[in-house]
Specification:
globular, EC 2.4.2.7, about 180 residues, Rossmann fold, Ade_phspho_trans, alpha/beta, about 30% helix, seven-stranded mixed β-sheet, two-stranded antiparallel sheet
Length: about 180
C-alpha cells in the first residue's frame, strides 16, 4: 500500500474543533485493517535500526501507535499521560498551550536512566506536547533518539521546533498548507 493510499484513509473534518481548523482524523486509518497494518509496518521500518530500549507514547492516539510499534519490536511501552491519570508516584512537566497550560506525567522510575527511547504520537502540529514529553524524558535521564509521527502538519512548525531542540523527527504522511 502506498503513502497516497494511507493518506486517503485519513478523514479531514473542516472547522473542528473551531472554525478554520482542518482536523486530520487518523481514526479512519486505524479502523482500516490493511491500512493500520501498513502504517505500523512503516513505523517499524523507521524505528528498528535505532535499537531502542523503550517506546513512549503520548496520550491518546500515541498509545495506539506506540503500543503496536513496541509489540512489533519486542520492546516495552511507556505512556505519557495528562495530569492526574496515572496512579502512584509520578514525575511531570508543565507546558504552555495556546490558551493556558497543561501537564504531562509518567510513572516515576519507569524510564531508566540512560534508556534509549522513541517518542510516538499520531500527529505533529505545533509540537508543544511533543517538546514537553521529550523534555520530561530527558529530565529522567533518557536519550530521545527520535520523535515519530504518522502525520505532520508542517505549516504549524512542530517538527521544525523538535529538531531545533535536538530531537530527530520523522512523519510518514505530510499535509502541506493545513
Amino acid at each position: 500500500m502506498s503513502i497516497d493510499s494511507l493518506t486517503a484513509l485519513i478523514r479531514t473534518i473542516p472547522d473542528f474543533p473551531k472554525p478554520g481548523i482542518m482536523f486530520r482524523d487518523v481514526t479512519t486509518l486505524l479502523a482500516d485493517g490493511p491500512g493500520f497494518a501498513e502504517l505500523v509496518d512503516r513505523l517499524v521500518n523507521v524505528a528498528r535500526p535505532l535499537d531502542v530500549d523503550l517506546i513512549v507514547g503520548i496520550e491518546a492516539r500515541g498509545f495506539i501507535l506506540g503500543a503496536a510499534l513496541a509489540h512489533a519490536l519486542g520492546k516495552g511501552f511507556v505512556p505519557v499521560r495528562k495530569k492526574g491519570k496515572l496512579p502512584g508516584k509520578v514525575v511531570g512537566i508543565d507546558y504552555v498551550l495556546e490558551y493556558g497550560t497543561d501537564r504531562l506525567e509518567l510513572h516515576e522510575g519507569q524510564v531508566p536512566q540512560g534508556a534509549r527511547v522513541i517518542l510516538v504520537d499520531d500527529l505533529i502540529a505545533t509540537g508543544g506536547t511533543a517538546l514537553a514529553a521529550a523534555q520530561l524524558l530527558r529530565e529522567q535521564g533518557a536519550s530521545v533518539l527520535m520523535a515519530l509521527f504518522a502525520v505532520d502538519l508542517p505549516d504549524l512548525g512542530g517538527k521544525t521546533a523538535l529538531e531545533a531542540d535536538g530531537v530527530a523527527s520523522q512523519a510518514l504522511i505530510v499535509f502541506e498548507g493545513e
